[in-house]
Structures are given as structure tokens and as C-alpha cells.
Amino acid sequence: MSIAANLDAIRKRVAAAARRAGRDPSLVSLVVVTKGVDVQAAQAALSAGARALGENRVQEWLAKKKALPAGVEWHLIGTLQLNKVKYLDDTVHLIHSLDRLELARALDAHCRKKGLTARVLVQVNVSGEKTKHGVPWPDLEAFLREVAVLEAISVQGLMTMAPAGSPAAARAVFRSLREAAGSLAVPGIGLATLSMGMSDDFETAVEEGATMLRIGRAVFAPGPAD
Asked: d(Cα 226, Cα 223) in Å, to the nearest integer?
């Protein structure tokens, strides 16, 4: 299977999952995760219609940004280290992993200095797993209120990662994030974007309200995406 065929299969599965949930498939966007993928494969994804590419590491993003055509919608989806904030510019469409106030304040200071606004998602550790990053579930509202006062930060929504290997647990995590986004009301904070769902669980995420998926392995795998 080619990258183009994999992407086509994923899009069909997303559309089917959206219809099962009574949702409009066009309201679900796809970030193709190019972590560890060479430039040629990333270009093949773009040629197959991918619009948004996601990178975990700033250094890898910088290298691919230089090698690929201008106009890619870049997403930073991995844990962002404080010492990498200085490299961010206006080509970063969305940061998926705001998970601590120290990072929020560093982003705010950098963006105010550069005349930018950082569009971010707050990463939430819904499951409480110690191996996962994210704002602890009980602290989410207080965290959002503290971030809301930072003038160069624009919160667009929430992101989470589900436990691996348990469809039922994944569904519960995705549902909890959707319900939180629907119930929280913090002035200055937008919660319309829900980034949840990866190669193994994206259909469940769509059924539970994901508006943005982060898929890498299923796009670039040599076998069929299903």
C-alpha cells in the first residue's frame, strides 16, 4: 500500500466513524505525524493531499520545514522543552502540548517579544497515568484560568492521549475530554478543538467527538491502514 492509499483508507474510516456518531465528517481534521519519517515520505503525504504535518521534536520540525515547500500547516505535538521555545515562529499553526504554567509563561514572553500569538491546546492527563504528560484532570479549570490572563497565548481547545490496548478505556477518556470541553466556561479560553485519536484508536475518538486526529504509523505503514 502506498502513502496515498493509506491516507485514502484512513479518510474513509474517519468518515464512516463520523456518520455512525451522527457527525459531519468534514468537521474532523487530520494531522499527519511525520515524527521519524524522512522528507521524501513527508512530501508524499503532502502530494496525497495532507495539509497539516505534526512533529514531536522542534529540531526535526526545523529540518523538515527547511526541506519542504512553504505553506505546510505545522503542528507541534510532543512535549515542548523550555529551551526550544526560542525557535518558534509564525509557521507553527498549533501547539498541542501546553501542559504546565512554566511553559505557558515562556511561550507568552517569547511571543510578546516577537509580536506573535501562540495558538495552543492544553494537554490533559485524563487517565491519570504517571507515564503520560498533561495537566492533571482535577487541576484543569484552575490551569485554564491562569493561562487565560497571558496576552500572547490563545487556547483553542484540549488534547489528550488514551491508554494503550484498551478500547473501552480509550472511549472513556475521549468521552471525558469532550464532556469537559462542553461544561467548562473560562473567559478568554476557547475549547472548540479536541485533539484526540491516533493510529490505534482514531475511529473511537471520532465517535466520541474528536475534531482533530494525530495519525502517523497508519499513514506510513507498508501494509493497509485497516
From this structure: 8
**Residue type at 125 in one-letter notation:** N
Three-state DSSP at 119 gives strand
CA distance 105 to 216: 30
Q: Is residue 226 part of a domain?
A: no
Residue-number span of the structural domain to which 11 is assigned: 3-220
State how far the Cα of 124 lies from the Cα of 82, in Å rounded to an integer. Answer: 19
Residue 225 domain-assigned (yes or no) = no
Per-residue confidence (pLDDT) for residue 225, from 0 to 100: 47
Within a domain: 169:
yes
Q: How far apart are CA 46 and CA 79, in angstroms?
A: 24
CATH value at residue 124: 3.20.20.10
pLDDT along the chain (226 residues), means of 10: 93 98 98 96 97 97 96 97 97 98 98 98 89 90 97 98 90 96 94 97 98 97 59
> How many domains does the chain contain in total?
1
Q: Is 17 helix (H, G, I), strand (E, B) or coil?
A: helix
Are the C-beta atoms of 145 and 104 separated by less than 8 Å?
no
Torsion sign over Cα 99, 155, 81, 76: positive
Residue pair 85/106 in contact by the 8 Å Cβ criterion: yes
Q: Considering the domain boundaries, does residue 63 fall inside one?
A: yes
Quickly count: other Cβ atoms within 10 Å of residue 224's Cβ: 10
Residues in the chain: 226
The reported pTM is: 0.95
